Amino acid sequence: MGGFVPVLFGVRPNVCLFRLIPFRLSHQAHSLETGLQPRLSLFRTTTETSVCDTNKPPPNERLPCSQVGYKHFDCASFYDNEAEIGKVFGKAFGSGGGYDRSEYHIVSKLPQGSHLGEDVRPRLEKTLRDLQLDYLDNYLIHWPAAWTPDSYAGETVPVSKGTHKSNRDDGVEFEFTPLDVPHEETWRAMEACVDAGLTRHIGVSNWSVSQLKEMLSFARIKPSVNEIELHPYQTQREVTAFCDANDIQVTTYSNLGRGPQLKPEGDPVLLEDPVILSIAQELDKTPAQIALRFAIQQGFGIFPKSMNRGRMTSNLQLNFELKDEHMEQLLALNRNVRFVNPDWYSFEDNL
What we know:
Largest sheet: 8 strands, mixed
Distance between the termini: 29 Å
Structural class: alpha/beta
Mean pLDDT: 75
Low-confidence stretches: 1-70
Strand order of the largest sheet: 2-1-5-6-7-10-11-12
């Protein structure tokens, strides 16, 4: 296993995300001097982090996210900002930009409304246009659930079935309607995108063991990655063991749970767990560092989320080891709690 590679995760204005993914090949982090438009935040691998202001800047102002260290970008059309990220890529990888595209690993994801075989390639081609790229390094099926193509146009994320207001100026409504699309149909179209040179690898996100078994029964190109929620309250032992046995890389999200201000009423606060606090005190680390190291030490990719510069920096300081007894204690905390559990998808029905 090589070194940890920092990842940009572009999202909506007041959320900043990045990832560290343990690649099998070690890469040296590079930096990029560039300007960025609102809603895009980049994270350095050294001492300073540039954070996107949630207030709208003057039209000619660009965010001073300069000298940003990274090697891997994790994007998705579902995040509704790929065109903004593309402005950065266009400058960096274009003529005179000074950056070699082949040295960077860029990922995006197929949204739920584009699972029909005929829709997969056009959606990927739109992502490539938005990102101003000729190809992706990996393209993932974001969720193992399909909607009708007109269910979600990128303005508002539906949280349950039915009619939802969009945030477009005209206030149009759209209907969120589940669609029964065989996984094989979607995957065949994904494989064709590899054949066409649009993406070098393909993978999945939020897939269970049964769904992965089904996938492997027909896949000509097996998924390279399965991205899942993972933390001491949701250890996902069955899924991770299956992925390991079948050489599928595991990357993980929600490693820190949700803070007291964001979590739904009744949900636990992961970083306030007495076991995590005790281990953090013993090792002179933060609770977040313990939760992140918990995933890394198992060989999984991670992404911590924070708007605080100090925490962003400390979340990168993970070059320490948890003792075997610490890992046992953390694994024993499993409660099968999901901090990302949308109304429109049932994990329980898809084990």
